[in-house]
Design brief:
The protein is an alpha/beta fold and 215 residues long. The protein has a single domain, classed as Rossmann fold (3-Layer(aba) Sandwich), CATH 3.40.50.300. Helices cover 48% and strands 15% of the residues. It has helices spanning 13-24, 31-41, 44-55, 61-72, 90-99, 112-120, 160-183, 196-209, and strands spanning 2-6, 28-30, 81-84, 104-109, 122-125, 131-133, 152-153, 187-191. Helix 2 (31-41) packs across helix 3 and helix 4 (61-72) runs parallel beside helix 5. The chain is globular. Bound molecules: adenosine monophosphate.
């Protein structure tokens, strides 16, 4: 089951992908997470992408495509994967088709107000990367991760002025990609306005409808 998840920053893609990844035993591959991890480690790749990521701008295609190509060639991707945050440009979409056949693209949609509320409340564990929300998914102890006790932080690019820039970049960049997949008949819109559990249920229904899962 080779899936691509598309949606504006803050729509909750990462949460849906992580739930479905656990349920079906396929890796959740987020290019944003890969970059943040590399920046944290101070690797060569991390140093290369740091400025783009901090400014909320797209990392050059050649860099991202190579990272994804390598990741998809790993053993754990044999039974499938969920790509989150990739492709972000038409060129990435075209290159992805050369690497592997995508079964389905889930396009998560919700009104802007919903997205802004979700983003400004998002908190991430500095240690294990678990995602929380001050209102919708609060940790048991404020500021502490339920899983590992790590410190929760707000991503640099979840600040309002950066969010606005990211939404702009998103709209400009994604229109042709959404069109590309829609024309090929493999794109399905998923309404992501409700709580995580409800959106995940909707995803499972879609996967069933397309014969990708049996249950
Ligand atoms: P995300 O967590 O998906 O919002 O990604 C965080 C940042 O990583 C983005 O703002 C970009 O700077 C970079 N990034 C992630 N995925 C891609 C991609 N497919 N193409 C270009 N840049 C990306």
């Amino acid at each position: 089951m080779r899936l691509v998840f598309i949606g504006p920053p803050g729509i909750g893609k990462g949460s849906y992908a992580s739930e479905l990844s656990k349920r079906y035993g396929i890796p959740h591959i987020s290019t944003g997470d890969i970059f943040r991890e590399e920046i944290k480690r101070g690797s060569e790749l991390g140093r290369l992408v740091k400025e783009y990521v901090e400014r909320g701008e797209l990392v050059p295609d050649e860099v991202v495509i190579e990272v994804v190509r390598r990741r998809l060639s790993m053993d754990d991707c044999k039974r499938g994967f969920i790509l989150d945050g990739f492709p972000r440009t038409l060129r990435q979409a075209i290159e992805l088709d050369r690497i592997v056949k995508i079964d389905l693209v889930l396009n998560f949609v919700a009104p802007d107000e919903v997205i802004i509320e979700r983003l400004s409340g998002r908190r991430i564990c500095r240690n294990c990367g678990a995602i929380y929300h001050v209102k919708f998914r609060p940790p048991r102890i404020p500021g502490r991760c339920d899983v590992c006790g790590g410190e929760l932080y707000q991503r640099e690019d979840d600040r309002p002025e950066v969010i606005r820039r990211r939404l702009e970049v998103y709209r400009e960049q994604m229109r042709p990609i959404i069109e590309y997949y829609r024309e090929r008949g493999i794109l399905v819109d998923v309404d992501a306005t409700g709580p995580i559990e409800e959106v995940v249920r909707k995803c499972i229904e879609v996967l069933r409808r397309y014969g990708l899962v049996r249950e």
